[in-house]
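Subject: design request, 265 residues
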């Protein structure tokens, strides 16, 4: 059991894809796993780099697997981007979005004015995330605004994401396009950067040394946990192999076959 090895542990920051499920297939008995976590007295925040879905979408998905999970403890990179901007820009600041409609909705809900293509001559920030309708015009607008002084913020820089057809281009592709066109390096919110971990720790009410970040991707989940000073737990139900996890430097604090084994093994 995890507390035998890490008696200081009070909170978990769990990745979702590849940890809790593959698409619509749960990985193990999620209702039992969450009940076990609660029984151990551990608090949980779910954190994903995916900026195209809302926390309520994930809460609904969990309910289909018989897990009743509060949406306030679910963080996506889009929501974290909005929180980050709200902390660093004036209310009502103008933001130009290259990203999904849900990213725009989250930013609008947070009180930002969204710049449209016709009035792109000034914005306070350009936010770039996964955009399946990216165009040359959007990249041009984003680059011109950044060159005119707008801050350049990226939800995440994941190169790809898995689909049944294979790996599709991720947000990192759009970010790279704007980065190349603008000549500027973005501030990145998602894992492996620390903004999402800082927000997760606030919501957990724990400090980094008593919190473990758990995920299946070494370059984001494990590197992010380590960058944030958290314990790092790798599970082998997603993209990384056991050998890759063992040879990652620094080695994750825990490597487990799956989340159930990580908690109970
Ligand atoms: Mg994952």
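Subject: RE: design request

Done. Sequence follows.
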């Amino acid at each position: 059991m995890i507390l035998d090895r890490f008696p200081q542990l009070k909170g978990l920051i769990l990745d979702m894809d590849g940890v809790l499920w593959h698409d619509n297939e749960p990985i193990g008995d999620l209702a039992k796993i969450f009940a076990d976590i609660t029984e151990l007295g551990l608090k949980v925040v779910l954190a994903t780099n995916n900026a195209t879905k809302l926390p309520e979408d994930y809460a609904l998905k969990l309910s289909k697997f018989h897990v009743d999970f509060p949406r306030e403890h679910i963080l996506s990179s889009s929501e974290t981007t909005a929180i980050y901007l709200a902390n660093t820009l004036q209310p009502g600041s103008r933001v130009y979005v290259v990203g999904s409609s849900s990213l725009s909705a989250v930013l609008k809900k947070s009180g930002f004015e969204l710049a449209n293509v016709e009035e792109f001559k000034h914005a306070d920030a350009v936010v770039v995330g996964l955009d399946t309708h990216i165009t040359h015009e959007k990249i041009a607008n984003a680059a011109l605004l950044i060159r005119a002084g707008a801050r350049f913020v990226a939800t995440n820089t994941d190169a790809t994401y898995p689909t049944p057809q294979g790996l599709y281009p991720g947000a990192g592709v759009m970010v790279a396009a704007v980065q190349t066109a603008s000549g500027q390096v973005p501030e990145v919110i998602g894992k492996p950067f620390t903004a999402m971990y800082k927000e997760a720790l606030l919501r957990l009410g724990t400090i980094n040394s008593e919190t473990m970040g758990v995920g299946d991707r070494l370059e984001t989940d494990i590197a992010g946990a380590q960058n944030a000073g958290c314990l790092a737990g790798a599970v082998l139900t997603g993209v990384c192999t056991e050998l890759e996890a063992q040879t990652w430097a620094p080695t994750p604090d825990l490597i487990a076959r799956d989340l159930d084994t990580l908690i109970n093994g």
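The first helix runs from residue 2 to 5.
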